[in-house]
Each structure stands twice: as C-alpha cells, then as structure tokens.
C-alpha cells in the first residue's frame, strides 16, 4: 500500500514501528542506534565502520560521499539526481545504480517501487569482495584524497573560495562597486 492512499496517521505509524514494544529500536538496541531528527550525515559517512552509502544523489550528498571516499548505491528520485547518478556510475565509476527506470520531473510523478531482489543486487554489487567492487573502493578513496587536496590551503577549491570572498568584499550591500 502506498502511503498516499492510506488514511493512517503516518507519524503515528512510524513512531509505533520505531519505538513500540518489539519495534525496530527495541529489536536492534544491541546492534546500533537510531538518530531521530537531523543527523550529521558528513560525520556519519566518515566513520570507519561505514563501507558504503545509499543516496538519492542530491548534489550535497554526492559531495559528502566523495569526500568520505565511499562507494555509493544510487537511488535517484527526481530532477537533477538522475544526472548526478550518471556522474557517479559512468564517470567517477564509484557507484552502482539501484535500478530506477525512467526519470521523474517532480515528487508529484508516480512512485516507482523496486523489488527486494533489485535492492539486494545493488548492495551485493557494492559491498562484495570481487574485483569490480575493490576497484570501485579504490577509485572512491582516490577521489576523496583529491577532494581533500582541493580544500587545503593552496588547493583549487580553497583558491576559488578565496577569490569569491575577495570579489564579494569589493561590492557594497547594494551590489554596486
């Protein structure tokens, strides 16, 4: 059943699933934790126990995944996320496509569901010990190192931000020179 067709209170349903007796948190309290609300994604992605990243391919998430040096499962939903997926899978070659077909322009387009097998295929492709997965991990680590160098003093991103700040400081609040 799609959530858009149910009359149940979505927040109450999720709260019950998470914290009700025998709920997700209760069943997994010895295995990890659930962060409610905002989570520091960039910090989580750089934790040594994280070996991969499932992302909708929003640009900020793409950058956080690159900086963390993680191979990625790409699960775009609309807009530019499909182009970002192509960058990750076809150009950087650090990710795998979960298998979404077509392209949605907005959240209002029909929802496409994936089978358990399609999700499992993507996870196994990303995380197994095969040669292709190892090459993907090595490329991700290489791009992370390049990103770190770009952000260090003297790096390309550092220089570009410095130039932007110099340009902005030459303008008054109304945009005049």
From TrEMBL:
Upper taxonomic lineage: Eukaryota, Viridiplantae, Streptophyta, Embryophyta, Tracheophyta
Keyword annotations of the record: Glycosyltransferase, Transferase
Recorded family membership: Belongs to the UDP-glycosyltransferase family.
Organism of provenance: Ananas comosus (Pineapple)
UniProt region (Disordered), positions on chain: 127-146
MF GO annotations: UDP-glycosyltransferase activity
Stated name of the protein: UDP-glycosyltransferase 73B4-like
PROSITE patterns: UDPGT (PS00375)
Record's compositionally biased regions (Basic and acidic residues): 134-146
């Amino acid at each position: 059943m799609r959530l858009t067709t149910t009359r149940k209170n979505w927040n109450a349903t999720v709260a019950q699933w998470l914290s009700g007796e025998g709920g997700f948190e209760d069943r997994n309290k010895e295995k990890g934790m659930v962060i409610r609300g905002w989570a520091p994604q960039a910090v989580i992605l750089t934790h040594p126990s994280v070996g991969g990243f499932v992302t909708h391919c929003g640009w900020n998430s793409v950058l956080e995944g690159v900086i963390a040096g993680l191979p990625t499962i790409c699960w775009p939903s609309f807009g530019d996320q499909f182009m970002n997926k192509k960058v990750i899978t076809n150009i950087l070659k650090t990710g795998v496509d979960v298998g979404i077909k077509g392209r949605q322009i907005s959240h209002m387009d029909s929802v496409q569901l994936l089978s358990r097998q399609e999700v499992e295929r993507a996870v196994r492709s990303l995380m197994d010990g095969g040669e292709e997965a190892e090459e993907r991990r090595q490329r991700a680590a290489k791009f992370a190192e390049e990103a770190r160098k770009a952000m260090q003093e003297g790096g390309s991103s550092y220089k570009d931000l410095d130039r932007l700040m110099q340009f902005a400081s030459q303008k008054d609040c109304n945009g005049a020179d």
